Amino acid sequence: xxxxxxxxxxxxxxxxxxxxxxxxxxxxxxxxxxxxxxxxxxxxxxxxxxxxxxxxxxxxxxxxxxxxxxxxxxxxxxxxxxxxxxxxxxxxxxxxxxxxxxxxxxxxxxxxxxxxxxxxxxxxxxxxxxxxxxxxxxxxxxxxxxxxxxxxxxxxxxxxxxxxxxxxxxxxxxxxxxxxxxxxxxxxxxxxxxxxxxxxxxxxxxxxxxxxxxxxxxxxxxxxxxxxxxxxxxxxxxxxxxxxxxxxxxxxxxxxxxxxxxxxxxxxxxxxxxxxxxxxxxxxxxxxxxxxxxxxxxxxxxxxxxxxxxxxxxxxxxxxxxxxxxxxxxxxxxxxxxxxxxxxxxxxxxxxxx
Length: 354
Hints:
Layout: E1 2-7, E2 16-21, E3 29-39, H1 41-47, E4 64-71, E5 83-86, E6 89-91, H2 97-100, E7 112-113, E8 133-137, E9 142-143, H3 150-153, H4 159-169, E10 177-181, H5 185-196, E11 200-205, H6 211-216, E12 221-224, H7 228-233, E13 238-243, E14 258-266, H8 279-284, E15 287-290, H9 296-309, E16 315-318, H10 323-331, E17 338-342
Parallel strand pairs: 10-11, 10-13, 11-12, 13-14, 14-15, 16-17
Antiparallel strand pairs: 1-2, 3-4, 3-8, 3-17, 4-5, 5-9, 6-7
Helix pairs in contact: 4-5, 4-9
């Protein structure tokens, strides 16, 4: 099917209208009309080839919420009219040990990313959610729980899943002491989710400028990391620290803040970090770990949890033709805290050929 989209055609060019050819649904496919799509830093990095692996043209976007418009003959999990969601993956091998465990993000053969991946059957490049429609294998289509605001739910598929997974992996619950470094799209979701789980949450920031925002999101405390005395007093005071900073930075100031057997989990930066001093790791049996997104079952669990606890991201709604301005603002951290595209706004401009 042909569908309207917005595509990047070169690293140094703005995104623009595009006609995208979606495959006809296979027997196990779900065809979806996309209603809303969140905007992730990964979208910007891929569109601008910051990681060096982008092939153009490309349609990005992996935080989709929509409505089922058709299903393949073998589909049993979804029906026409259902409200559904699609996140960062659209396929995996489905037969390795990780897939059998519901950890498709760790598929031994590599999961198929929603954009900048390759279709496992045809080899064609996958295209994401800055489009009116998408066709996805049913196992990777999530149910949107009743009561969850469709217009705000999109960022849960990436920012929500990425921060929910380490909170669950390290068994955060009532009484847990959680620190959050960075208060952007990922960080603000880490705060909200940890608070909803009953943890005592502290935001770590270089300046006190965001303390009021942290409090409004539910944080119990605010630690200014440039305050040497405050940092010393906070030694051994966290069971888990989630680091959401998306650029290269120094982890060393945060390691002493971990209690014995506690973990600092990196979820933001993809690439180099500053050199790590092992001494505080050894002396406190502390650990540094990484985590990226979540499996399908855990992502569904997160959506259900958010519906029960009324946890939603803070979003700013934009039109599709505002995406280039949104990217400029995203680079300046000028958003509280996630952009969401209303896909009803797509299709006003003349598209270029696919």
